[in-house]
Amino acid sequence: MIKCDIGFARRFIKDEDYLKARKKADEALLQLQNKTGPGSEWLGWRDILANPNDAELEQITALGEKVRDKADVFIVCGIGGSYLGAKAVIDALTPHFGSAGPEILYAGHHLGGKYLKELLAYLKEPKEDGSHKNIYLNVISKSGSTLETALSFRMLRELIEDMYEDEASEHIICTTSKEGGILNKLIDQKGYKKFIIPGDVGGRYSVLTPVGLLPIAVAGIDIKTLFYGAVSAYSEFEQNAEDVIEYAALRNAIHESGKTIDVFATFEPELSSIGGWIQQLLGESEGKEGKGIFPSVATFSTDLHSLGQFIQQGQRSLMETMIIVEKPFSNLKVNKLDGNDDELNYLAGKSFHEINTKAREGTTEAHSEGDVPIVRISIEALNAENIGQLIYFFELLTGIFVYSLGVNPFNQPGVEDYKKAMYRLLGK
Ligand code: PA5
Predict the structure, then answer these.
(1) Is 284 a catalytic residue?
(2) What is the CATH number of the domain that holds 28?
(3) Are residues 16 and 92 both part of a single domain?
(4) pLDDT in tens, 240-256
(5) N or C: less crowded end of the chain, CB within 10 Å?
């Protein structure tokens, strides 16, 4: 199970401040459990784990296998909570290079014309044997009307309709709300296959619904193991949420002390996109009413050579949350080189995991000496079960921490402001 260690951060907080924050975190957990906090009609992300829908898991697994078998390219078309969770899990659990199964591509998450033009051209390009690529498109939008996603869907749908004519609807899968929205109108007209996003699960809490599960299944990941990993975390934290409470309390006390940035850092490049998912989950949930700790993401060692200087010696406005995988998941070792001309033989025989671990320990020591409060979150291994646990850990942490700020974690009123201004400028 997940471990949370606040040992490198606790000295930055006075006992009385920590105890005050602890009390708030305890109360926040009760608000979640008793559904008494603001936005409590959005707690479906907990209910789906309390009552797993095995039939839906089977149905998604079966469709995932079918598409995986047939497709050359699978496009995930969505923005924010409608794609970040799937991308996080897929990037964590599939090979970096030469993955078997369809190529997974993303669209609908911005308005960049160059990207979309090149994507459309790439999809039209024939394979080496001259035949066209077999393409499947999953459009994901809870509202069914988000401009970035809807516009990309329009362009991609046109291409698929030209390519497959009467059979186009076989290649388009829509994930959206039960009813309402323009996407539902299109589904009714065209007969596209549809998955429903539960009405009480908000976008950024929806990775364990069809929103995330279908793309993850197409990527060849066992979604039942992922889902039941989250179920096991749910069951454990319903009995004893001490680790989550401690972290939420610490983060709250750090927030009160005036720190404004939390750097979510990992030494495993596989977890970079998990950082992106956490960034959105926390960012959209806590950043309201002039409150919140800005969540930023760093992948080390890469970013030790970009953000490292600031973290070590810049304005002391930040804390760091390190996400750690304990067990090695690659057995690559350093060879002994005759002549030792690069002078690296002192590392011969060591695994990259050992070396990376020392880099992490050294960085923790240095950043801590540089007065950065550090929280360490560890999973045992990089596998579907542990990633499922990590997902629920951060969902619960978000709920508890944001409630303890006195804020509704489940709405995003600020996001509407850019949309209103954009639509006005576009003449909608
Ligand atoms: O967490 C959220 O609610 C948002 O990030 C949404 O997921 C995002 O805005 C996309 O919305 P929709 O799925 O309605 O297109």
Answers:
(1) yes
(2) 3.40.50.10490
(3) no
(4) 999 999 999 999 999 99
(5) C
